[in-house]
Every structure is written in structure tokens, then in C-alpha cells.
Amino acid sequence: QVQLVESGGGLVQAGDSLRLSCAASGLTFSAYTMGWFRQAPGKEREFVAAIYWRDGSTYYADSVKGRFTMSRSNAKNTVYLQMNSLKPEDTANYYCAAASAPNTNMLTIKNRVVYNYWGQGTQVTVSS
């Protein structure tokens, strides 16, 4: 079955960096758009970043643009989220998600409902 396993979360100070990883198995990885979402206590799960399966183009939430970088290795079935200049408001549980090719295009890529599979999440806490 499909598994997405996140790692790399932790407790850091404001201004620090972290790199999250998401290892995927049980799917044809190169045919899936991959996304990162986050959810803080009492808030809805929100889009953070995505990488389109077809051409590797990346998309970011305005709140992380210029600070976060998403990448993928189809050889390793893994996506990464490099997070720099972290802020306390970045504190959340970060989830990796996969969306099959027919579900995604440039209009839908930020919408969580198009993502078929989800990981269990990794906690990121940024202290001020």
C-alpha cells in the first residue's frame, strides 16, 4: 500500500533552518504531484508548497515564499522541504501529500482535496 513517511521536524529557534524529508513507497512516484501542508493547533490544514509531477515546477504559499524551497528526487522517491529563516508562526505539524497526475494541474495544485495520500506528519516548533 502507499506510504508517506515524514522526518526532520524538531524544535528550533527563530531564524534557524530545518530540512524535512518525505519518503514515498507503494506508488509510481514520478507520476505524482507532491505537496507539503501544515496544521497548527486550532487551525485548518493549509497549503505550504507543491512540486508538479510533469515538469517539476514549484508552488508556494505567500507566507513561505523566499524562505522555503521544495525539491524532489525521483531516484529516491523522496521530496524535501528546506525551511530557512524560520518564524514562530511556522510552528505546526507538517504533512506530506501525494496527488495522482489526473487530479492535479496548476489550478488545483494548492487544494488539499486533490491529494490522495497523506503522511502522519512531523512536528516543527519554532521558539522566539
Keywords:
seven-stranded mixed beta sheet, 128 residues, four-stranded antiparallel beta sheet, single chain, mainly beta
Provide an overview of this structure:
This protein has about 130 residues and is mostly beta strands. Helices cover about 0% and strands about 50% of the residues. Strands 2, 4, 5, 6, 9, 10 and 11 form a seven-stranded mixed β-sheet that branches. The chain has a four-stranded antiparallel β-sheet with strand order 1-3-8-7, with no helix packed on it. β5 (about 45-50) and β6 form a beta hairpin. It is globular. The N and C termini lie far apart (about 40 Å). The mean pLDDT is about 95.
Concise synopsis of the structure shown:
The protein is globular, with a radius of gyration of 14 Å. It is built from no helices and 11 strands. The chain has 128 residues and is an all-beta fold.
Question: Roughly how many Å is the radius of gyration?
Answer: 14 Å
Order of helices and strands: EEEEEEEEEEE
Percent strand equals over 45%
- On the 0 to 100 scale, the average pLDDT is 96
Low-confidence stretches: none
Helical content band: under 10%
